[in-house]
Amino acid sequence: MCSFYEGISIQMTCLVTTTAPFSRLLTWRTRKCKALENAITSSATLRGILRFSQALAPAKLKEERDAFIADYMDISNNGGIAVLDSKAEFQPLQMNPVAIDEKQLQAVKTKVYEYLGINEAIVNATFTEEQWSAFYESVIEPLAVQLSLEMTDKIFTEREQAFGNAILFESNRLQYASAATKATLIKELMPLGLFTVNQALEILNLPSVEDGDRRLQTLNVVNADKADQYQLQGGNANEGI
Fold first, then answer.
1. pTM of whole model > 0.85?
2. Angstrom distances, CA of residue 204 to CA of 36, 86, 137, 200, 207
3. Alpha-carbon distance 21 to 19, whole Å?
């Protein structure tokens, strides 16, 4: 989790120069993770003062200290025990690492999600259809519109754009809908002639078929342009009866 926030800090350096609050938020979150790592490391190693009973030269003191550190004050010293003779005495220092409050970590995480316009369900891929639709409309779709406008403006001249040339970025939001939602959509709209057979297959992520570009329509609906004629014919038939 710490490396995740560090990665954001590195990759978004050019973006956060104008967003100081977000930059400070990432820095604070990274420091919290570093503090947690240091607390775990400190609790697993010996820390203290090594006192010798006789006077030693500075070079000898340094040599003895380095030897003691190499032998005992390392995280590989699983037992946490040091062995000394009468010439030296080790006085341990009490270390009380402060654990990070989980509520504080969650608050920072929430702030990051809010700034980026996402939520934990999107990051963990546990989102519902409603959450995905909201994320698409609030984050993905605006980016797609901006990319479309920028690419069109950079690639085509004004004259070319006047003839209708444009670059369009879009995504099929139904791709992430559930199978039940897709089936209901096809069941309700295909009888109205809104989908071709191949379009319905595409919604279900199935390959197209030959002669699949035709539309199927129920006989229970009538063309709006012929509705009046249909009603008049029905009325004349009733009068004949």
1. no
2. 47, 80, 22, 7, 9
3. 6
